[in-house]
């Protein structure tokens, strides 16, 4: 049996997306192909957004919001929302990364998120991220960087030198990657001297340098690789944000290709399903009779608490939905393209001063973050009646202490959506004697006052450099999200608890 096409496309998506910046760009590629138009947060949307339109915007190039406006939308109507995140645990290159020891060139890194750091040892690693560069016109531009060959490695200590039963490396002293030999760098014909000379010329042209030169902070060859990928000269690289990633590509696995072996399943799996669910919803059902807005948002920084300008605990989603909730209210136009908005200004039921609160009262948010599959070698770590399996459907996550925001009305709603999509669902509750992770669901539910449910596709080895998911759960997730976005306005009034 051939694997679903969605699983193969997901492999392309995750292989092209070693960082949140790349994940956003991969999402944009798919959205633009489906007819979505870019808008900017700093612009006036009331003169840009149209009924039946499809749009996306980004913040910091690492968070993306995309939405489709129903042709019968009016202020105060529902917004069907999906929330995921673009970041994953990783190692990030420090602002001053140049290190060396006993003849080895090393790179200083800091840990991002709660990674299983021992899984990063003895892997073929490279660098990816974004560089801020001079564009030749006095401006500074962002360039994506992805070095596609292994250049960095974190070696384990031979068992002969350490026979302790536990492998628990010190993250500050024993997690330094090696990038090469000092002697080899010194003998690299002309390269090191050229970089130094360029730095001197650049410094001569500048009257004042607040920070040390980039060539003094980082190994010159790493700067050369970044500049090459960015398509600029070394001296034009002003700053960068780079992380390490495993160059081994994601792939299908298992005897019957029932698994996906991949980095960053948490949470690019749900990011991909959210993007494709929105695209499929507008492809399969017309927006002509739609009264709601279908919206997805994929945030950065979930793995470190979401407290940033582009995280879920920011003003981003509240600001976006507040602007959408009053969209076109009271606006008149003589142009034919704007005629469909005209009924709004004379509708006695519309009060723009409370449109946001009205919209949130009838809206819903699905918080989509990966879930735990039962691990056959550690069955005792799972509650006996809640052991999700891979390829058996998306998992609804429940926690009495509100680490997840799910409640009964949400479960009933999602079950109805799954019936329409013909996909299975599963339930998960953590053991009482085990800690429970959390998601963006509870914080956004409290911030917006909106009904919320937490779910995710099941996976093994969460937060490892190499995780395992189900091939068919990609398709399950897309179909479920397509059904939710397409049918929410129809079912909202039928499942309501005041």
Which key phrases capture this entry?
498 residues; alpha/beta; Aminopeptidase; Aminopeptidase i, Domain 2; 2 domains; nine-stranded mixed β-sheet; five-stranded mixed β-sheet; 29% helix; 23% strand; Peptidase_M18_dom2; EC 3.4.11.21; zinc
Poorly predicted sequence stretches spanning 5 or more consecutive residues = 192-204, 330-337
- Spatial strand arrangement across the major sheet: 1-2-3-13-4-14-18-16-17
| CATH H level, superfamily name of the largest domain | Zn peptidases
**Average pLDDT, all residues:** 91
Task: Assign the CATH class of the largest domain.
Answer: Alpha Beta
Written overview of the protein:
It catalyses: Release of an N-terminal aspartate or glutamate from a peptide, with a preference for aspartate. The structure is a single chain. The protein has 498 residues and is of the alpha/beta class. The protein has two domains: 5-88 and 263-494, Zn peptidases (Aminopeptidase), CATH 3.40.630.10; 90-246, Aminopeptidase i, Domain 2, CATH 2.30.250. It has helices at 5-15, 20-33, 182-186, 191-205, 214-217, 220-230, 265-284, 316-325, 355-362, 408-421, 440-448, 471-491; strands at 37-38, 54-59, 63-69, 79-85, 90-101, 104-112, 125-134, 140-146, 178-181, 237-246, 251-253, 259-262, 293-299, 364-368, 371-372, 394-397, 425-428, 451-456, 458-460, 467-470. The strands form four sheets. Strands 1-2-3-13-4-14-18-16-17 form a nine-stranded mixed sheet, with helices on both faces. Strand 11 and strand 12 (259-262) form a beta hairpin. Helix 10 (408-421) packs across helix 12. The model is unreliable at 192-204 and 330-337 (pLDDT under 50).
